[in-house]
């Protein structure tokens, strides 16, 4: 017997013979996950910058840095996934516009520039101040970061503020666009029953916002504990409202989507049922249990007007739960879609590799990178206002 | 010796290649790859045992960098099509073997440019049991992925009806694989086949997802996608695709639809033919006679 059965994805029923090699692996699971966190974090930062919702002021600059750091790593899973990563720019040099994927380089590049610019405007006053007090290498670094603009008169700061606000305003549709677009990459494929849905972009977008809020809650709580600073109640309440709104709409739309599949009961619906009961049942269970948990807890926190330490603890759990739940959802969509054979007569069961180029190990490394980067960046550009009023 | 006539022919061939470059809207050198990249000229046993018929790396590089020129071929003059008469197929899988050798397809059980499906209705059943030669049981039976055979698993049961359906790329009129390719590395040639420029493909595998027929597979060792191109290197020289050439029963019929008397034009005219998954809107160019409701 030759080595074949080592790498043939096991299946039941009938699948096309080429399908036993699952094209998109766990790397493509974390790609929409990471861009989703970006979108969510960005929305929070904008709620203060654009809509001037004061309760988000303490975290708004931190949220901006979070979005930036995650965005830097958003394309990495794709690069690891490509068979010819050195040719990645072919899609940018000669984009084939009928492809939903062709615009990725532009959309991501545009958004990254926007985040960088907004960060610069939001932190310019601090950078200038640092460049004055720091000496040695760091002084030089800050000097360079000012980009030669060290005017901190009230007038100049007002201009900074204005620019940050405008960029933030452009950023909201861009963040929505970036993530709705990721949903479109999947939803526009007519070949995959599990993906081909008009609701896909909406589901991607809303779950993205929910997971990003979750991330911010978790980071805010952890960072505050480490810095031994008080966690501001008003901010937590604000995050609670957004999380509640997000999870409610996501769950309704997800449920509608499933209902539609079952109600229309097109050819192959039995295989879809078998998919949910079979290969992705663990993912489905995690996704729905986490969602229900978050919905129940956030509702409770709202109804009982919970504040203070209890609010922090419960909301922290919700943040973790939504991050896990949305990750499970990404798995169910990306991997589940491929486990459902195009024949609609068979189901594959995908087992991720542990080591190798497209493996869980690489996924782990890529997932940790944004956090480390964020830690370093907050050293460079402390986003916390600590007592004094937020600058921007 | 170049007579004025053949010179004109050559110019025209060069022209058509230029047009195609223009049509792609990019100046990369894929004119060469057009013929060379897909076709493994010279199927040789390599040292790597499990890839017995794979081109070795030097041969592949040679085929890509120095593709065979076909000066007197004009792709505007042809409209290739394939017919499949499933009533004739005996499931001998010589087509698959020929294809793997001719095109240097990876020899394991999850890379195919063409394959054959077996549909079996057991007595009293209203649905078919389906398998292909890559079914683990079939491989277990021969003990190797490189011996293509169906096992005899139905010998002790009553069978109402059974038949084979050969599959290959449909070279769709509206290919969804081409639609989704972000780089334009895969494209539709004027004479019908959908080709891949393997020197330009980035290996994103979006096209693998988009093909409704599972015709595409990813060649890990090259980092690019692979699929049936109806042996483009052969048909442009006036030969039949390898699978058509070896089929002992005449199941696969190849020809030019621009020629009303070609075998495939006659086949389509004289039979009731169907295409696979018409609801996808891909408008396939492989025409089946005698398929069944269960065929996917
Ligand atoms: S059968 Fe698949 S690979 Fe072939 S042209 Fe159609 S969509 Fe493309
Ligand atoms: S794998 Fe290659 S041919 Fe397929 S869509 Fe990507 S770039 Fe195009």
Q: Roughly how many Å is the radius of gyration of chain A?
A: 22 Å
CATH topology description of chain A: Formate dehydrogenase/DMSO reductase fold
| Shape, per Cα inertia axes of chain A | globular
The number of helical elements of chain B comes to 10
CATH architecture of chain A: Up-down Bundle
Order of secondary-structure elements of chain A: HEHHHHHHHHHHHHEH
What can you tell me about this protein's structure?
- The complex is a heterodimer of chains A (392) and B (296).
- Chain A has 14 helices and 2 strands.
- With 392 residues, chain A is mainly alpha-helical.
- Chain A has a single domain (3-380), classed as Formate dehydrogenase/DMSO reductase domain (Formate dehydrogenase/DMSO reductase fold, Up-down Bundle).
- In chain A, helix 2 packs parallel to helix 14.
- The termini of chain A are far apart.
- Chain B is an alpha+beta fold and 296 residues long.
- Chain B has one domain: Alpha-Beta Plaits.
- Helix content of chain B is 27%, strand content 17%.
- Chain B has helices at residues 4-24, 30-36, 57-65, 94-103, 136-142, 176-180, 206-210, 232-235, 242-246, 263-270; strands at residues 80-85, 114-122, 129-132, 159-168, 186-188, 194-196, 217-219, 224-226, 252-256, 286-289.
- In chain B, strand 7 and strand 8 form a beta hairpin.
- The interface between A and B is large, with 49 and 62 residues.
- Bound molecules: iron/sulfur cluster (2 copies).
- One iron/sulfur cluster binds next to helix 6 of chain B.
- One iron/sulfur cluster (SF4) binds at residues 180-181, 183, 185-186, 196, 201-207, 225 of chain B.
């Amino acid at each position: 017997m030759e080595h074949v059965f080592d790498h043939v994805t096991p299946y039941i029923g009938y699948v096309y013979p080429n399908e036993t090699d699952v094209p998109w692996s766990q790397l493509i699971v974390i790609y929409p996950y990471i861009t989703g966190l970006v979108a969510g974090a960005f929305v929070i930062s904008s709620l203060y910058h654009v809509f001037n919702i004061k309760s988000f002021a303490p975290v708004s600059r931190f949220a901006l840095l979070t979005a930036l750091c995650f965005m830097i790593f958003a394309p990495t899973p794709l690069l690891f996934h490509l068979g010819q990563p050195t040719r990645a720019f072919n899609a940018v040099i000669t984009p084939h516009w009928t492809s939903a994927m062709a615009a990725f380089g532009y959309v991501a590049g545009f958004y990254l520039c926007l985040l960088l610019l907004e960060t610069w405007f939001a932190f310019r006053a601090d950078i200038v101040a640092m460049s004055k007090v720091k000496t040695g290498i760091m002084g030089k670094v800050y000097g360079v970061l000012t980009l030669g603009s060290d005017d901190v008169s009230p007038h100049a700061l007002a201009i900074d503020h204005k620019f940050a606000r405008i960029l933030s305003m452009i950023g909201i549709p861009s963040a929505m666009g970036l993530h709705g677009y990721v949903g479109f990459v999947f939803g526009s494929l007519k070949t995959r029953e599990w993906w081909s849905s008009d609701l896909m972009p909406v589901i991607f977008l809303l779950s993205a916002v929910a997971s990003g809020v979750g991330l911010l809650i978790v980071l805010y709580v952890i960072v505050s504990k480490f810095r031994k600073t008080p966690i501001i109640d008003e901010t937590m309440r604000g995050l609670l409202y957004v999380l509640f709104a997000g999870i409610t709409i996501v769950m309704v739309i997800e449920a509608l989507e499933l209902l539609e599949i079952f109600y229309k009961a097109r050819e192959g619906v039995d295989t879809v049922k078998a998919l949910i009961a079979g290969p992705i049942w663990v993912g489905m269970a995690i996704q729905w249990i986490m969602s229900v948990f978050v919905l129940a807890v956030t509702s409770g926190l709202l109804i009982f007007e919970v504040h203070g330490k209890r609010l922090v603890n419960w909301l922290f759990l919700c943040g973790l739960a939504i991050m896990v739940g949305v990750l499970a959802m990404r798995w169910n969509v990306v991997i589940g879609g491929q486990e459902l054979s195009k024949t609609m007569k068979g189901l594959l069961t995908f087992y991720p590799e542990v080591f190798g180029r497209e493996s869980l190990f690489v996924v782990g490394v890529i997932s940790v990178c944004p956090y480390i980067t964020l830690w370093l960046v907050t050293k460079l550009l402390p986003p916390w206002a600590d007592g004094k009023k937020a600058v921007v | 010796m170049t007579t004025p006539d053949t010179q004109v022919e050559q110019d025209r061939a060069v022209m058509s290649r230029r047009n195609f470059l223009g049509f792609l809207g990019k100046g990369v050198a894929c004119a060469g790859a057009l013929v060379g990249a897909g076709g493994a000229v010279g199927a040789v046993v390599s040292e790597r045992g499990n890839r017995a018929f794979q081109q070795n790396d030097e041969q592949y590089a040679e085929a890509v960098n120095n593709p065979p020129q076909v000066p007197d071929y004009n792709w505007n003059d042809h409209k290739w099509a394939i017919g499949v008469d499933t009533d004739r197929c005996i499931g001998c899988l010589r087509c698959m073997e020929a294809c793997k050798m001719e095109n240097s397809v990876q020899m394991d059980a999850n890379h195919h440019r063409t394959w054959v499906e077996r549909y079996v209705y057991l007595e009293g059943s209203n649905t078919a049991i389906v398998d292909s030669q890559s079914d683990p049981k079939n491989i277990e039976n021969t003990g190797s992925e490189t011996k293509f055979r169906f096992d005899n698993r139905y010998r002790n049961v009553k069978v109402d009806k059974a038949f084979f359906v050969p599959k290959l790329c449909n070279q769709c009129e509206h290919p969804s694989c081409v639609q989704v390719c972000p780089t334009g590395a895969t494209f539709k040639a004027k004479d019908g086949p959908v080709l891949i420029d393997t020197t330009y493909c980035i290996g994103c595998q979006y096209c693998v997802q988009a093909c409704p027929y599972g015709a595409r597979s990813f060649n890990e060792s090259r980092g690019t996608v692979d699929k049936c191109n109806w042996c483009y290197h052969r048909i442009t020289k006036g030969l039949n695709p390898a699978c058509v050439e070896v089929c002992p029963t005449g199941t696969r019929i190849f020809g030019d639809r621009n020629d009303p008397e070609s075998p495939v034009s006659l086949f389509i005219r004289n039979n009731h033919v169907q295409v696979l998954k018409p609801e996808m809107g891909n408008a396939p160019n492989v025409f089946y006679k005698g398929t069944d409701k269960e065929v996917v």
